[in-house]
Fold each of these.
Amino acid sequence: MAIKKQAVNPEDDLGFGNQAVRQRIINRNGSINVKRLGIPFFSTTNTYHRLITMRWPAFWLTVLVAYIVVNVFFASIYLSIGIGNLHGTNDNNVSNPFLNAFFFSAQTLSTVGYGHISPAGVIANWVAAFESMIGLLAFAMATGLLYGRFSRPSAKFVFSDNMLIAPYALTGGRGLMFRLANMRLNVLLDLAIEMTFSFNEVVDGKTIRRFYTLPLERSKVSILTLSWTVVHPLTEDSPLYNITPEDMKNSMATFNILVQAFDDTFSQTVHSRTSYQYDEIVWGAKFTPAFFHDEAGLVHLHLGKISDFEQADLPEIS
Amino acid sequence: MAIKKQAVNPEDDLGFGNQAVRQRIINRNGSINVKRLGIPFFSTTNTYHRLITMRWPAFWLTVLVAYIVVNVFFASIYLSIGIGNLHGTNDNNVSNPFLNAFFFSAQTLSTVGYGHISPAGVIANWVAAFESMIGLLAFAMATGLLYGRFSRPSAKFVFSDNMLIAPYALTGGRGLMFRLANMRLNVLLDLAIEMTFSFNEVVDGKTIRRFYTLPLERSKVSILTLSWTVVHPLTEDSPLYNITPEDMKNSMATFNILVQAFDDTFSQTVHSRTSYQYDEIVWGAKFTPAFFHDEAGLVHLHLGKISDFEQADLPEIS
Amino acid sequence: MAIKKQAVNPEDDLGFGNQAVRQRIINRNGSINVKRLGIPFFSTTNTYHRLITMRWPAFWLTVLVAYIVVNVFFASIYLSIGIGNLHGTNDNNVSNPFLNAFFFSAQTLSTVGYGHISPAGVIANWVAAFESMIGLLAFAMATGLLYGRFSRPSAKFVFSDNMLIAPYALTGGRGLMFRLANMRLNVLLDLAIEMTFSFNEVVDGKTIRRFYTLPLERSKVSILTLSWTVVHPLTEDSPLYNITPEDMKNSMATFNILVQAFDDTFSQTVHSRTSYQYDEIVWGAKFTPAFFHDEAGLVHLHLGKISDFEQADLPEIS
Amino acid sequence: MAIKKQAVNPEDDLGFGNQAVRQRIINRNGSINVKRLGIPFFSTTNTYHRLITMRWPAFWLTVLVAYIVVNVFFASIYLSIGIGNLHGTNDNNVSNPFLNAFFFSAQTLSTVGYGHISPAGVIANWVAAFESMIGLLAFAMATGLLYGRFSRPSAKFVFSDNMLIAPYALTGGRGLMFRLANMRLNVLLDLAIEMTFSFNEVVDGKTIRRFYTLPLERSKVSILTLSWTVVHPLTEDSPLYNITPEDMKNSMATFNILVQAFDDTFSQTVHSRTSYQYDEIVWGAKFTPAFFHDEAGLVHLHLGKISDFEQADLPEIS
């Protein structure tokens, strides 16, 4: 095994523990590959979390279903009081009493209140007064949820599909490289990247997982205007100096990437994560430019070309 | 008394003052055990603070009571103007004039406005116009409060029930340990922990309270994916090196824990606090694993097992 | 003049410029004593700023006036179309056509829409459709403003009325001290304080203003549970070592205080400012305790006693 | 070429890449001069971004158009169901069935619901119930958008129109200077400035772009109360020590400015950017004061005079 043991610092664990793994901890899309048992399902915060992070179609469906369920609930109440306590249903051209109650409930919950159906009698009036208050509060919650969904800080980076082992001009040797760019319209400032190398190692006959933070050519930029090629130089100091593709496969080598940036549009710190596994590393390749200048001198960055690379000869390792 | 005096730095006070205490300053649930007198009850910020931090049942009750109180108030006004200025009450099947005024008020405040009861005359129309504006603003406030309640940054950690004096493999000696995990669905980054040891000491016949920040094996992790066992190694440098359970009890030893993390879902810094007292320390025990791998290799973390420990022999102190 | 010139670092200017002043730059309540000319009055941000920071009575009055003005505007339009295009005004017991139009407008703007008055004809219907949209948006704005006002991060500290020149036990000499405590219900973490001493100095016959950041016994605490007495020790290194009350008066000595903290309830960084002038310094006094323990051992902090001090003999300066 | 090559650090690239440019990367108003291709147009985040950052007239127009489009959509549905299913249209003095359906739709969407037109029959009632729910949600979205627009953190600085090569008293030599002040009503704390000098250089016959971060006399101030004159001293260490106007023009010299500050009113970090090109540099000039004291001693800062300068003789370069 070519991974240089002395270079590995036990303090470089990122909170992953030292269990041997058969799967990535951080998935390519940034989600975490750990299942937690015992999280209370109905806690307010977790419900809010789910409503904020679910996909839009699921969210709209949830809202629609909730609207119908609440109206069915109140319609049942009006029906049990007696449909005669809703005046005007005779002129509504709806013969089904439940539907009449349902439509009156909808008009009350949404506070549209046409009034062609109206409550009569003490009990129906109390229920309607209560329902309209519920409507107001439900509306308030929907407002909060929609704002929370829209305004949630999020970075969306496009990462290159592969990591490359490429010639690295600055040292005359090799470099481990990947590329990223901003998929959002906002301006990102103060980007910082942390890359961790993790691998299985056999210690005393037991396989454990080791972690090592890889030093980068540059780990910060002040403003991200184009794409950024992140480079870990494969110098003699690197634990990956003379690693081979077979070493990577045998040790289940994984590279975890944590990206942090400041979103200038909304003044929020945003984070992103991804990971590359041994089978996503290309040996002997270099990235091709993803931008060009037009006639006016304006720079165009083509986000679809972030992953493009071409073959390149690697310098020998002494 | 075995607490090593020279190790205690007067600068390690965390803003608690140096009064001898008979109670914890930080409770187990993180609240602060100091009563402040003279805080203005009706200041806007404190009212907002109370409405945001009160429990949900209390909040809903407050909203309901406020709704009824405001409607009673406006109903009284309509009644004093004369119920004859509300048209349509004859068809409402409600004989009590006050209830008729109340229901009309509710329909106005919630802007449902069926119109089967409607204001007539200049004064009733003015009051109704004003009440509907109040309704709009009350609705606006409810929206803000609900959003504020839902979106309030909060970390919810599960801390182990006990702190352990456990064997600590890295030094071959002992360690003071507790364990924590994330109870929320969100991903926590950049966790940092600060542990303070406080105890009573008799100086010149007067009992004062001393504070000491304990160095940790590791005080930061980049990402919390599993549980985290926080360790203060009981080396010779530690003020707790040769402390006994009796020392702890006599000095009312307390360990205050401050946790800080970055919530990746909502891009907010979150804090949590807890404390352990001398009677929550277990001597000679070690934590048992709280996670396991399923057949597919996926890691499962069982939050209900965070507090589980088993007996363990402690190495002797030289 | 006893202020030690060599101790003053020209780099300690806090962005105040070096003009001699006849007034404080930072007022006691934290506002800035500079008038800026040329700020655009009607910019969106400045309007929002004003609506968020104005006092509550002024805010409610603004909302009420806006509501009336918009309704008067739309009432005029309905009137110019012709009151006959509003059906139902005959039964409203209001003889004044303008008032009828006004009340209809209010019912439309607030979306209460009883319907006892309703638009008739194409133009009145268009205007009503437009007005109800305006009503929705105005409501939306009010919601945002109210939430912005409620949730605005703010620290409210009570600062002692005076700064004291007090005996300082730790050095056996004197200290310049003031005291502060938290007036809010929230918990404050990571407090940091910066104290700047500014004074007039005559250089080449011209009076200029000098600034000096004073080192503090402690400039940070992790958590503020009680009151905090901030101390600048008057050691030989201090530019104030042998200053006299006359020196302070003659040089218009001012002490500017910047406080920063983290509000744990709302996860926001909050700031506060204040200043003390030469005539608010008390020579030869010390603060009396502002807290006590009740029988149960619970600590009570009395915010009204933060300013309380008693006479104390000052040690001589060698 | 007088730009001192040895002073240029390849690590000072700010994420701009090293392409020779014919245009600024950062425009005077702070926007970025790079066109990105391949950003998904209809992503939620980018739509939100556009709605938040578009100008106010465009925003109001978008809202108005959306309101009309949705009402036209629902009016068509009511019409296709049959105008006879909307009761009360006969008394509405509107003969066009589409307009009647449109006005009913508007009354439903805005939840004003007068009720002089009301739905009749099962289908019309279902559509109305659904439309009022859509109205509630649309209202909720408008609320979120308006709040997002109002509360978006933003710094608005006025930068001097020109950078000056001015005499610099502190070194007795020259300085490169510009001036800025705060155009907002809020108080700015902890300002930090970063100035980057970029220029074209011919290396091996190929023109590349170099970047160099210029050290400043002062790069931070604690509080911005007046204007701030930012100075890069043209000492021998500066890469600009003996640069000439011709050098600047030939190398397309550009100065990029990044400003960061903490907005005390809304507790948010705000950023601003600008740039100066070679043709915006004035040689041999100095800024004239932009503030004055009135009789009461109050300082007045005149934002309109931030750019004002007068001729000044430059000291010779040895």
Note: Chain B has two domains: 5-35+155-311, 44-151.
Amino acid sequence: MRQRGFHAIVPAGGAGTRLWPLSRSGQPKFLLDLTSSGRSLIQQTVERLTPVAESVTVVTGVAHAEAVIAQLPGLPADAVLAEPSPRDSAAAICLATAVIAQRHPGAVIGSFAADHVIRDVPAFHRAVVEAVAAAREGELVTIGIAPDHPSTAFGYIKPGEQLKVDGAPSAVRVDAFVEKPDAETAAQYVSDGYRWNAGMFVARADVLLDLLAQNRPALHKGVLELAQAWDTADRAEALERLWPTLEKVAIDYAVAEPAAAAGRVAVVPAGIGWDDIGDFSALAPQLPDVQAGDEDRSALHILGDVDDVLALDSSGVVVARSGRKITLLGVDDIVVVDTADAILVTTRDRAQEVKDVVAELRKQGSTDLV
Amino acid sequence: MRQRGFHAIVPAGGAGTRLWPLSRSGQPKFLLDLTSSGRSLIQQTVERLTPVAESVTVVTGVAHAEAVIAQLPGLPADAVLAEPSPRDSAAAICLATAVIAQRHPGAVIGSFAADHVIRDVPAFHRAVVEAVAAAREGELVTIGIAPDHPSTAFGYIKPGEQLKVDGAPSAVRVDAFVEKPDAETAAQYVSDGYRWNAGMFVARADVLLDLLAQNRPALHKGVLELAQAWDTADRAEALERLWPTLEKVAIDYAVAEPAAAAGRVAVVPAGIGWDDIGDFSALAPQLPDVQAGDEDRSALHILGDVDDVLALDSSGVVVARSGRKITLLGVDDIVVVDTADAILVTTRDRAQEVKDVVAELRKQGSTDLV
């Protein structure tokens, strides 16, 4: 199943403030086990890519490089690229692409976020194999998730005509990337066959870097110069000199959207059980139901030791991380997150606003808690 | 203000399982500070009685005698009567009455639960003074609380004709004690001028013991024999021999109700800001509003360090006892109780059912937590 010349990139950034107090600045979402699998999200991501890729390269902040290496002992030492400071996804992914292109001339790269879940790994592998085949033909290839509901939390991909590429029978042209819609528009998108944009894409390294050069020449120049120094004694000097000058821009804006407008992007549609676990409510479908209900909303979902939780007539999501007994009585769609130094009580409907709690804690100077 | 010959009894029993996990079998409700006053309920009770009574005697279980003595260093050593096991209120109060009658011939006693709150202490003192005056005339005198809402959680006192006793101008005959009513009946009771039965009563020791002798001769005999041995070297032997034989019965059934039926009971009506803090919802009016609302239900009430709580768009009752940060987001009428080893999340409407959580924990063998 391993695709010759295919190298995976795993950008590992973002604190996941909507998952506070479980996630912290020192313990970001990708380092957490959010599925009761015993593996963190980044461990699952790398393990999912290993069977199809010749190598996996992680790009993360210097603050988290040590923890990433500790969680991924099988990764070669040079496979973790540490950014001195966050400069958004274009710099991170294109630097990794340029480094890989040097190490493995002719490489096809694929970028896959470190903090997403994919429940159907065989389907994911089939999609990657198709995406690599289409990428070899010069396409920038995204993987488009089959929506299972009209989500307003994700951007969508508008599919166009069938592509005719050997080995990628389901690939189609991307007419456009569209922003997170309102509920009505989302329903229309779903009925029109749009796909969720999960930010996963595959391309030849030279194609991606060419697209960057066309759209962001200064960023392209900086990234290439950095990559040339990366595996030499000059890395530290080059990082110090060049990194702060790189434009902070998302790869969607810097590359994917202009490329789509130019008819250079394809999508491989896939039903792979994908989720980005954007908040505590989204944890629910990832966890076993302890107290089964007729539907998801009437069930109680527990992340942690189920023996730590006693629930009477209650539903929602409980995260048990302190070893204390958590008892619930007559609370529905509740979210309770219990950690050693902080506890959060909210509802599944308000789970997106947990970032406001973090903002308020920062404002109050409780930096030790965030 | 001290009433000559008046001696107070403070029965300190009952775990208060509706206040779990704050109250535990080893840390019952009466030992807790539930009003952010810095004083436990039993300390407040004794301090409230000291200005009007010649002595205060506490009756409590052996398991709690040490903690009671530690909280009440001003009490003489012989003022705490320790019961080997709980035998309900008639045995406890009548034993204390008989011991006081021996120590202070001609005493008038008054019994006041250790775990109630009274916000208007001067009004309470005025009521006690009237009750003592009526008691000297041979009445069993209850203090009847002016209801501020048609509660279904308390028994009621049906008032009858005016009593004509010097020093007790507001005392009236009690026609009957009635059980906790349903909501409709409660509303009728309130409009008919009924009073809440707070279980507070005052009587001459000889009158109370005579009423016990008439209604429960065996219990009377046992209590008297025990009292005779109490201040002698025979106490331990008498306790071991007699205590287990005493009938387990509430003083309401053993004395107050039959006495009312015989026209022997009076009531002094009083508005004293009384509450028995029967559950966490009842804590709310006892605590300062941190986040003021138009009415009680829209406010957030905190027992503990207010700096430990961050609430956004939330109302209810929070008990902060672990030192951890408790954050609430978008939860209304919530109850969150955070202790070192257990946490409770429920609603004010369900607060009465917290006893079911304790029952379930016992059933599951979590005896260390209850």
Note: Chain B has two domains: 6-275, 287-369.
